[in-house]
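Hi Q.,

Before the meeting this afternoon, I wanted you to have the 6-O-phosphono-beta-D-fructofuranose prediction in hand. No need to reply - just skim if you have a minute. The sequence and ligand are here:
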Amino acid sequence: MGAGRRKLILVSNRGPVTYGRDENGERTTRRGAGGLVTALGGLLSHHDVIWIASAMSDEDRVVAAEAGGEAVDEQTYDGSPFRLRLVAHDEVAYDRFYNVVSNPVLWFLQHYLWDLAYTPVLDAALQHAWDDGYVQVNSGFADAVVAELALDSDAAVLFQDYHLFVAPRLVRERVPDALLGHFIHIPWPQTDYWHVLPKPIRRAIHNGLLANDAVGFHTHRWQLNFLRAASDLAGAECDLEEGLARHGGRRSLVSAHPISVDAAEFERLAESEEVVAAEQELIARRPEQLVLRVDRTDPSKNIVRGFRAFELYLEADPERIGRVGMLALLDPSRQDIPEYSEYIGAIQREARRVNDRFEHDGWIPIELVIEDNFTAAVAAYKQFDVLFVNSIFDGMNLVAKEAPLVNRRDGVVVLSENAGAHEELGSWAVTVNPFDVAGQAEAIDRALTMSLADRRERLEAIRTHLREHDVAWWVESQLADLDRCAALRV
Ligand code: F6P
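Predicted structure with the ligand bound:
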C-alpha cells in the first residue's frame, strides 16, 4: 500500500509540540497531549510533512511571530524533521471556537451528551460564537493551508477532527484542484440529533466536510451515520455500499479506518526505567485484584456511572471488600468549560461516597488520581486484572488498545458497546451497555472470575489484532484513500 515519501500538509487544532519557558528563561518544547498527536507522529518519519496547528501557549505565539506566521523547523523525539506552522488566532475568537462551539456544542452533540429536556438552550450567542469564533478560526487555518499550497501545489492536505469542519470548503473555494482529506476522530451521530443545531450550522458542517475528496471515520457505524446525514441534511447523493457521496458536482470517498497505536513503541515504553519504577510503586500498594480505568475527565467517559457500578459490584458480595480495588487515573481536561469543571466535582463526590461506604482499616475501594501522568498510566496498564472502559460514546478509545498490549496479568477488557474500539475488539472483550450500571457490575464479576485460559486467549487475540493493525496501517489506509481519490478524478 505504501507509495514512498509524500508531501503532506497536516492540519489539526492541537499541534505536536507546545513551547514554554523554563526557570532560566530558556525556551522549552513539550510534546502535545492526546492520542491524535501520538498517532499522527508516525507520519512524520515517513513523509515530508508541514503541520499546521493553533498557537496555544504564550510562547507558541512568540514562535509564530518570530517566524512571521510561516513554518519553522522542528523534529520528533526520534529526530525526524518536519515543518511546523503555528497559527496565532485572535484570542477572543479562539475562546469562542474552543470553549463555546467546539467542545460544549460539537463534542457534546457528537457524543449524545445533552439532556434534551433541559439542554442545550441555543440563542444568538451560539450564532455569534459560530460566526466570530468557529468560522473565523477555520478561516485562519484555511489561509495557512492556501499559503502552503501556493508554495507547493502537489502537497495533499489532511485535516483532523471536529475543530475544522468548515476549513475544507474555504480552501476548496480558493484552490479548486487541491487534494483534501479529513479524518474525524469522534462519533458521527444520527441525523435527528443534528437537528438540535440551527439549520445553517448543521448544513455548513456537512457542506464543509463534503468539500473533501476523502472523509475518514474510525468505524462503519460513524461512516454510515455520516453518509445518511449528508444525504438528509446537505442533499448529497450517497452510495452506502461504495462509501461515496456526490454533492455540488464533486465526489467524496467516505470510509472507515480504525486508528491504532504503535505496538512496538508501547512495548518499549513498558520496559522503560520510569515505567518500571512507577510499576514497582503500584505493586507495593495494589489490591489483590485491580480494576483500572484511565481517562480524561470528560463527561463522555462515563466515570460517575462507572463508580456506581463498582459500588454495586462490592455490595453484591462482602468477600470482595478489601480484596478488589478500583484505580482511576484521570487526566484533567478542558477545565475552562463549566460542564467539565463541574464533572470533576461530580467524579470526586461519587468516589468519596463509595469510599465512605466501604472503607475500613485504611483500605479504600476507589483510588482516585486526577493528574496528567502518562508514565503512571502505562505502569498501571501492566498491572490491571480488569480494564474498565464504559464510555457513553467514544470515537475509538485508544486506552482499550494501549493497555492490553503491555498487560502482564492476563487482564480482561470490559468495553462499552458504544466505543469505536468495540467494532474491532468486541468479540474478545466483555461488552457493557454504558447506561446499565447493574450490567457493568456483573461484567466486572465475570471478567474477574474468568478462567486463566479464557483470559489469556482473549488477550492474545487482541494483541495479535493490534500488531497486524497498528498505527502505520491506519496512516497508510488514509493515504491509499487519497490515491484512490486522485485516480477517480482522471
Ligand atoms: O478524541 C479526540 C481528541 O481530539 C483526541 O485526539 C484528544 O486526545 C482529545 O480529543 C483531547 O482534546 P483536546 O485537544 O481538547 O485536549
